[in-house]
Specification:
Low-confidence stretches: 1-73, 75-94
Helix content: 25-40%
Shape: globular
Radius of gyration: 26 Å
Order of helices and strands: HHEEHEHEEHEHEHEHEEHEEEH
Number of helices: 10
Oligomer: single chain
Largest sheet: 7 strands, mixed
Strand content: 15-25%
């Protein structure tokens, strides 16, 4: 009897061991579910830009690869980057190291300014600046970015800038194309035909690419409603490296609309070379409420910093934006300028 029970117990033990081996416990099942490659940490690609590390809990993951632009005089693999972002939600946060390594963000710092009035107050927190001229110059580490404003026909200042651009002695690290050529001249826009823009681009801007300059596209007045830049792209032989855009909006949805449009249309790294708080649904009405402006500044800065498609952004200190938006008030920062300084100081 004892021998029979011992044999039965032994056989039962063997059966339990076999069952345990074939059936993972809840803890081992949990490990299996987590064991795949984390979508937030893609492998670095063999490109000029390292893969961007996404936030710890990405909302959605999609891979965006900026295509190679090629011509007889300019062949540049601009960027290859993976970011956790949908068309309406930025969930990827590039590190300062990855941004700096790309070469597409001046000094590795996205924040900048359009216009030099506030430069003394912001220079320790920005990576770049420009003032719509071919030869911006101020002391300090922020990179001054030259611009070919227009074709010389808008006014005397436009003609002078064109002459100065023709006289550039050295190739800059970055250069920007025309200022809103898609709107008539006379109100801060260059007002150029596509044919004129393409011809002058090939004459004056394209040759800089062969000397190592990264080319920024012309920036559009009509934002996401543009057609000029699409036609321009078809007519030029030397493509741009960076899509320069203007964002004149008063809401996060408006900002996203413009960034999404230019990314989806041209698939190139984006510089927001001007952004401002403007109601563009009712003509062009600058924001005047300081609370609204402060909220917009903080929202815009955080969004641009988190969106890995945006490699640089600049607060517009140009004309026609009212008397509350400008960065300076006399010889000091305005309330809006102080808000921008505080917003970008969180990142550098």
């Amino acid at each position: 009897m004892f021998l029979r029970r011992t044999v039965q117990f032994f056989l039962l033990s063997l059966a339990l061991v076999d069952y345990a081996a074939a059936s993972p416990t809840p803890r081992s099942l949990s490990r299996v579910r987590r064991g795949g490659r984390c979508p937030g940490r893609p492998r670095p690609s063999n490109s000029t830009v390292p893969a961007v590390v996404a936030a710890a809990t990405p909302i959605a993951t999609s891979s965006h690869v900026v295509p190679t632009t090629s011509s007889a005089s300019h062949t540049t693999t601009v960027a290859s980057t993976t970011h956790a972002i949908t068309s309406s939600t930025a969930a990827s946060t590039p590190t300062q190291a990855s941004v700096a390594a790309s070469g597409l963000t001046p000094n590795g710092i996205k924040a900048g300014i359009a216009g030099g009035d506030a430069y003394p107050f912001l220079k320790d927190h920005i990576g770049w600046w420009y003032d719509w001229t071919p030869n911006p110059s101020k002391s300090g580490s922020p990179i001054a970015v030259p611009m070919l404003w227009g074709g010389g026909g808008a006014d005397a200042q436009d003609a002078s800038r064109l002459a100065q651009f023709r006289s550039l002695a050295t190739a800059p690290k970055y250069v920007l194309g025309y200022e809103e050529p898609d709107c008539p001249s006379g109100a801060g826009s260059a007002g150029m035909s596509v044919a004129e823009g393409a011809s002058l681009w090939e004459q004056l801007i394209a040759p800089l690419a062969g000397k190592g300059t990264l080319l920024g596209s012309p920036s559009m007045c009509k934002q996401a409603d543009q057609t000029w830049l699409s036609s321009f792209q078809e007519q030029i032989h030397t493509q741009w490296d960076i899509t320069a855009i203007h964002v004149n909006k008063n809401s996060l949805d408006g900002i996203k609309k413009d960034v999404d449009y230019y990314w989806n249309t041209f698939k190139k790294p984006i510089w927001v070379t001007e952004f401002a708080c403007v109601d563009d649904q009712n003509g062009f009405t600058p924001c005047t409420d300081q609370g609204e402006i402060n909220s917009f500044i903080n929202t815009a800065v955080d969004y641009f910093q988190q969106d890995s498609r945006v490699y640089a952004y600049g607060y517009s200190n140009g004309l026609g934006l009212g008397n509350v938006w400008p960065l300076t008030n006399g010889n000091s920062l305005s309330a809006s300028g102080q808000t921008y300084l505080a917003a970008i100081s969180k990142y550098h």
